[in-house]
Amino acid sequence: KIIAQQAEIITQQKETIELQAKQISELEARVAEFRAYPSTPSGMKPVYEKEPAKSGRKKPGQKQVYQELGKEASASAVLNADETGWRVNGKTHWLWCFTNEIVAYFTIDRSRGSPVIKKVLGKVFGGILICDFFGAYGKIVAWAKQRCIVHLYVKE
């Protein structure tokens, strides 16, 4: 009986090792295809062509790429938004982040108010805005709003 149990354990371990080897191979294949793009966070989808067009067109400049990221963020079905203090030449500014699973759009502004959000998302955001309880988000018109789960737990 003990030998049968040991044989079953060995079989299970072998199957586990084979599964892990398969997962490692799949991961290696994915890593081999991965490319980081200098104008977007690692792993994020680039909004510009991977290679220069054969027609001789140049890749868009940084400003155009930045604007494309903003458009993509504002067109999202679901978007997380947050802001944090950011010092610029010794003065308080605000670093705003608008992100989803594909794009991360950042902007720095002197204001922490709703005009910054409206500048990025437009007068009406057509998706689900995930944010904390900061008052500026309350002034934004969105299809729906979801409060950040962590903030729901700590809100008194």
Give a verbal description of the structure:
The protein has 156 residues and is α/β, with parallel strands linked by helices. It is 40% helix and 26% strand. The chain is built from five helices and five strands, in the order H-H-E-E-E-H-E-H-E-H. It has a five-stranded mixed β-sheet. Residues 36-53 have low confidence and may be disordered.
In short:
The protein has 156 residues and is of the alpha/beta class. It has helices at residues 2-33, 62-74, 114-121, 135-138, 149-154, and strands at residues 78-88, 91-99, 104-109, 124-131, 141-147. Residues 36-53 have low confidence and may be disordered.
> Mean pLDDT, as a whole number?
79
Residue runs with pLDDT of under 50 for 5 or more positions: 36-53
* Proportion of beta-strand residues: 25-35%
Q: Could you describe the largest sheet, including whether it forms a barrel?
A: 5 strands, mixed
Radius of gyration using CA atoms only: 23 Å
Kindly, what is the distance between the CA atoms of the first and last residues, rounded to a whole number of angstroms?
Answer: 59 Å
Q: What would you call the shape?
A: elongated
Spatial strand arrangement across the major sheet? 3-2-1-4-5
Helical run tally: 5
Number of strands: 5
| SSE-based structural type | alpha/beta
Order of helices and strands: HHEEEHEHEH
The percentage helix is: 40-55%
